[in-house]
Amino acid sequence: THLEQALRNAIITDAVEVYFQPIVRLQDGAVLGFEALARWIDHDLGFVSPSVFVPLAEERGFIDALSEVLLSKAAEAALSWPQELFLSFNLSSAQLMDPGTSETILSTLARAGLGPHRLELEITETAVMTSADTAQRIIADLRQHGVKISLDDFGTGQSSLGRLRDFTFDKVKIDRAFVSQITTDRASEHIVKAIVAMCDGLELQVVAEGIETHEDAEKLKALGCGMGQGYYYGKPADTAATHTYLRSRY
Ligand code: G
Ligand code: G
Ligand code: MN
Ligand code: NA
Hints:
binds manganese (II) ion, TIM Barrel, 22% strand, Diguanylate cyclase (GGDEF)-like protein, globular, binds guanosine-5'-monophosphate, alpha/beta
């Protein structure tokens, strides 16, 4: 298709970009790291969402090539941040079915010169379900090298609690579907409260996604949630704007 060809071409010509969104400590707003988010603006097609082009690359069998370009760019940017800041990067489900993934990631990091302990990989419940054994091995291998694993979009997949028991994660990201209604919907508040308590018990870090207002942030702090992310703290921004953002804070 035209879209597929345009995307393949964008990968080759280095036209796919990475933006960064801050992840902060809720207590004091300190930046702890950034999530990398792919961005592509095509000459003819204009803005194409990663929720369109990532699944396309998966379907057409070139998610590896796309992801390698993105991770390589993201790692290069992270090199110029303060050393204590982590880089969080999304892995797609197809990558968790491919036994070569850990090797690809580690060698991309090595080439960029970014230590594996600075990388966190965001994976979804659906992704670990589809190919559990392979996913398990990839996760174990990467963690052994110091890479951390976050369970993304928590609460929206299936058998969430079973995943937490059977897999080893470092962090849970509460889906914005719960966070966005936390000040208006009692059920959402109770669910978030329960997730935070459960993660404390399991010694998992917790990030609330999609924080858009001061009121959201205050409520999450009161519920004991450790970290947050969302437009209230910062929208995804390009490498240069991310530098400026960091310079204003350090
Ligand atoms: O940034 P935005 O909210 O538009 O992202 C839409 C979706 O695309 C999200 O589910 C996000 O996780 C996914 N996404 C963004 N960047 C990447 C990437 O680099 N790799 C993968 N696999 N998914 C990404
Ligand atoms: O699936 P994942 O959690 O990786 O996707 C992150 C998506 O959420 C990105 O597309 C990002 O642009 C979007 N996002 C980040 N912060 C906010 C927010 O505060 N509100 C909304 N509506 N979307 C957000
Ligand atoms: Mn994510
Ligand atoms: Na998410």
